[in-house]
Specification:
The complex is a heterodimer of chains A (about 120) and B (about 500). By secondary structure, chain A is an alpha+beta fold. Chain A is built from three helices and five strands, in the order αβββααββ. Chain A has a five-stranded mixed sheet with strand order 1-2-3-4-5, with helices on both faces. In chain B, strand 14 and strand 15 form a beta hairpin. The longest helix of chain B has 18 residues. The chains are: A alpha+beta (about 120), B alpha/beta (about 500).
């Protein structure tokens, strides 16, 4: 099961990455993780460092992916983002402006993308 | 897209219009937020509204929804904002048209999209009339409450779907006709008839006087003598509420959610029984967001406190001021509120902890100290406010077992009730337009104006006051009770024998 979830996450990240690249984002790092948590995608667009949380769901019968991105999740991403900036001082100096985005993906049973939504600046 | 829907909040017995502003923007991260100092019940409205809309066949939008309850600085509570929030979302999203004239939307949603019985609808209708808002949309089960208010069109809403159909215009909901004939009898089964109680003629007489004039009464006697039975039988001789009284009672019952679904104006006189573990706030009212207590629920009716000395001291003493003023004002950080509390107190107690003090047959086992401590609970100022003090002695066994031809059929509750009603009619005629309903509620001004007392009777009263050192309050209270006795006999003025009878109910304070 664990393995399967990991696979699903990986697929989601790949879909999101190619989607974001398509609209002009530059991928810097995928799946940045420390022992405290992880960030799915770290990207850059218009000189702004963008941390992206990706959520993938197979079918929408049991709720939307958006519902799963709550305050707690956002604050976790924010904490991890701060950690990333601490670790990469150079990056922090290069990109003065930063924000958190979310990508919600819904796929069918055989992993065909049904919809993909990108939300800018969800950080509170 | 922004829409505004009108709803209301209750603060005590006042109703404040609340503007429910719903903003839906497709941009931004989807979410659902309610602001404007909501409490937990309102915060949970999110889930109810979301599910009710889904189950009504409307897809809940993936959008950023912000609901603001304005004015934003008044704390709000209750589940009545479900309907306005849902309608706001529907208007913003699905293009459900707004009402042509300003209308109140009020009600709790069920998960299946139907509306549930919501408290406070009667107060809402009164507010609508005051604010000249013609239409109100309320749950069908609560609509009868509002229908008694004239000049307001009450739309009974069964489900969310019905309401959208009405607003779109495909299928109109018919407003309820103004109804004066739906009356709600409070469920208080009268357990005993006066005819079932054998003996205790003095107590029955005193209770009749109390019921006729709304006087407070205190019964003392050994266990098993029938105090509780007498008090419960009292519920059966209370006259129905007058129209004006009924409105006030209905207000309080609507606010506290004590009107059953489909119910309307309350016509039965409330009879509230409180156990002695009732807290002070439960009895008087209060809480950080003040709510009416038992004394307000007993407004224009009876509050029965059995085992009176077992109540905590602070609870009993807190009764003093409302007993005198007929209202209670509660001040908390959230604000100050007034609740009416013109109740008639019926208290019952044993004479001592074991219960047999002064009993001719059984010995009292209490030490003098125990007796003193027990009776000290009933403080002077409190007992001074009780007009009728009676002893309910143990019943003679000979009287309980019927013997041939010896037992006289006692008078039943129906007959006594008729007497009480006649006396009340005389009173309401006398006090018409003064806002006073009973003799017990007369102010000194009304005593001067209405009470006619015979010279000899006044002389007797003066003598009693002098020889027993009665207080000024007691003097006026004696006059009020004497007036009730006179009314029971349809006597135009107070006669000496009326005063004499009343004086014997005062024994306790003086002994």
């Amino acid at each position: 099961m664990k393995q399967k979830n990991y696979q699903k996450g990986k697929t989601g990240e790949d879909i999101a990455a190619s989607y974001l690249q398509g609209i002009g984002f530059k991928i810097i790092e995928k799946n940045f993780s420390t022992r405290f948590g992880e960030i799915d995608l770290i990207t850059v667009k218009n000189n702004c460092l963008v941390f992206v949380e990706v959520k993938l769901r197979v079918g929408e019968e049991f709720g939307t992916p958006e519902e799963l991105i709550n305050k707690r999740k956002i604050s976790q991403v924010r904490r991890m983002a701060e950690m990333f900036l601490l670790k990469n001082k150079k990056m922090a100096n290069t990109y003065q402006s930063q924000r958190i985005d979310a990508v919600a993906i819904v796929v069918s049973q055989n992993y065909e993308v049904e919809r993909i939504n990108h939300y800018e600046n969800i950080g509170i | 897209m922004l829409t505004k829907v009108l709803s209301a909040a209750h603060s005590g017995l006042d109703t404040i219009p609340i503007e429910v502003e719903v903003s839906i923007s497709k941009k931004g991260f989807p979410g659902f937020n309610i602001i404007g100092l909501p409490n937990k019940a309102i915060d949970e409205a999110k889930e109810r509204v979301k599910t009710a809309l889904t189950n009504s066949g409307i897809e809940f939008p993936q959008a950023k929804i912000i609901v603001n309850l304005a004015p934003a600085d008044i704390p709000k509570e209750g589940s009545n904002y479900d309907l306005p929030i849902a309608i706001g979302i529907l208007t913003a999203l699905e293009g459900v048209p707004e009402t042509k004239r300003r209308a109140f939307f009020y009600g709790e949603l069920s998960l299946d999209g139907s509306l549930r019985h919501t408290k406070g609808v009667f107060l809402l209708a009164l507010a609508a009339k005051r604010l000249k808002i013609k239409d109100i949309f309320v749950p069908e089960e609560s609509a009868n409450e509002a229908a008694v208010v004239r000049g307001v069109d009450v739309y009974p809403v069964k489900t969310l779907k019905d309401l959208t159909n009405h607003l779109v215009g495909t299928e109109k909901i018919k407003p309820l006709k103004n109804q004066n004939n739906i009356k709600t009898e409070l469920e208080q089964a009268v357990e005993f008839d006066f005819a079932e109680i054998i003996g205790q003629e003095q107590a029955k007489r005193a209770l009749t006087i109390a019921a006729a004039g709304g006087h407070n009464i205190f019964m003392q006697g050994p266990p098993g003598s029938g105090k509780t039975m007498l008090a419960r039988a009292l519920a059966g001789i209370l006259p129905p509420l007058e129209e004006e009284e009924s409105l006030e009672v209905t207000k309080i019952y609507s606010l506290t959610g004590n009107i059953p679904p489909g119910g309307s104006l309350i016509l039965t006189r409330p009879f509230r029984v409180s156990h002695h573990t009732t807290s002070r706030i439960g009895l008087i009212g209060g809480g950080s967001n003040p709510h009416p207590g038992e004394i307000s629920l007993a407004h224009n009716g009876v509050l029965f406190l059995d085992e009176f000395p077992e109540f905590s001291r602070s609870t009993l003493e807190a009764l003093r001021q409302p007993m005198e003023d007929g209202k209670v004002s509660i001040t908390r950080a959230a604000g100050s509120m007034n609740f009416p509390a013109e109740f008639m107190l019926v208290a019952a107690a044993n004479p001592c902890p074991c219960g047999y003090l002064g009993d001719p047959k059984r010995e009292c086992k209490c030490s003098p100290r125990m007796i003193m401590r027990y009776q000290a609970k009933l403080s002077g100022p409190l007992m001074d406010r009780i007009d009728l003090h009676i002893n309910v002695p143990a019943v003679d066994i000979e009287k309980l077992i019927p013997q041939k031809g010896k037992i006289k059929k006692p008078v039943n509750s129906k007959v006594i009730r008729e007497r009480v009603e006649t006396a009340r009619k005389i009173q309401s005629k006398r006090f018409k337009g003064t806002g006073v309903f009973t003799n017990a509620r007369m102010k000194n001004k009304q005593i001067k104006e209405f009470v006619k007392i015979k010279k000899e009777a006044l002389l007797l009263l003066k003598q009693a006051v002098n020889s027993y050192n009665l207080s000024a309050r007691t003097y006026f209270r004696l006059i009020k009770v004497a007036q009730t006795v006179a009314d029971l006999e349809s006597s135009p003025s107070i006669l000496p024998n009326h005063v004499a009878e009343v004086l014997q109910y005062r024994i306790r304070v003086e002994s």
